[in-house]
Amino acid sequence: MDPEIHNPTKFFIRIEFKDKNADDIKREGWIAWERSRINRQDDPVEVLVGGTKDRLLDLIRFERAAQGLDPGNRQLLAQKAEFFSRLPTAPGANLSLTDVVQHPLAAELRLAPEEVLDVIAGAQRLKMAVRGWVAERHLKDTLARTAGITYCQPINKEGAADLHVRFEEGPLLTIECKNVLRETDSKGLPRLDFQRTRASKADPCSRYYSQDDFDVVAACLHAVTESWEFRYILPNYLPQHGKCEGKLASNLRVDHNWQSDPTAVFRAAANARNS
DNA sequence: CCCCATCGTTGCGCCTGCAT
DNA sequence: ATGCAGGCGCAACGATGGGG
User: Fold this and answer.
1) What is the rounded (10 degree) CA torsion for A165, A166, A171, A177?
2) How many CA atoms lie within 13 A of A182 on its CB side?
3) What local confidence, expressed as pLDDT, does residue A25 receive?
4) CATH fold label, A127-274
5) Nucleotides of B under 7 A from a protein CB
6) This protein's superkingdom (predicted)?
7) For site-directed labelling of A121, which of A20, A49, A96, A106 has its Cα 20 to 30 A away?
8) Diameter of chain A by CA atoms?
């Protein structure tokens, strides 16, 4: 069965299939078929996979590779057993998974995954934009591995902070993730362009952040150090904006006030929230 | 009342031009 | 030479309001 179609699983599931399917499984050892749904045309098509018991590990390998695939690609992959079979790959068949199963985005764009990467690499502005979300992804991975972090998910909403994080049993904290600029200042300190893309027409100060827009700011140093490392700070440690009352300055330096260990910063942020 | 076009706002940071 | 303010390319989304 397709795990994604039955996620979440509220009850025990019973499925039925034809004797013919069972015969095919015994004979072939491994087959995939489309589940027939009489009078249920509106439901999504589900691709079932059957194998003999010695193929259990193949089934796990297959479901790993097939997670989230649409039914067509799921069936296509299921029929290419050489990609997850216990048997050695046939001589000469030097294919990779991506040759058979396109990432959904690559399929939508009608490009090979490598071609999508070429497009990104070839468009300066696009690459720049992607780097922002990649930094966010690395931050999520970094925090997820950090002791004490019990929850860590992207927020993915316009106008909101980037990441939701919970430290131990504390409140849900919002994290703003920003890449530093490529060029450091004259003292070698990384610079952080800390403002929104544009201000609203009515209020020029709306371009700047204020202290309570998020609980923690994370600066990604990759543009300077070429390593996906982060520095953390509480917004109330940041300098005030010179002109806009209650806003934070937009030209920041990642200096000694920024911590490389997130733990103390998150603990302080949680305390600030609770008080 | 529904459909739509339009406007305003936002996400990525980087870049230019002016002030010092 | 350096710092800072503010504009920029591209594209998506939500609110708004006019037309039928």
Assistant:
1) -20
2) 2
3) 80
4) Trna Endonuclease; Chain: A, domain 1 (3.40.1350)
5) 8-15
6) Bacteria
7) A96
8) 78
